[in-house]
Amino acid sequence: MSPDGTPPDGLDSQKLGELLGAAHDQVVTAIWLSVGMLCAFCAIAGIALNRRRAALVFGFCYSLTLCFVRNGHARILGPAGCAVAFIGLLWPQWRSPPG
Description:
Strand content: under 5%
Largest sheet: none
């Protein structure tokens, strides 16, 4: 870029806008995936420490982050994971014995 803010010769401003838009989308996706991995790690730690509710909440948060990723698999797994984690939160922890 020149000091007056115009693109250099041979660089179309529309092409530059598309390039910056693609880079922005990739950075946003990387941030969502990083947050999701932190939530997944916390969910695994909750399972290891026998903290059922904490593990389910972090699992729900992990699935929620997938809802913001522009990927076919993430758009399927995100809402499905949220539903499963929500049902797990509502499910009683201990079932009474039949009888």
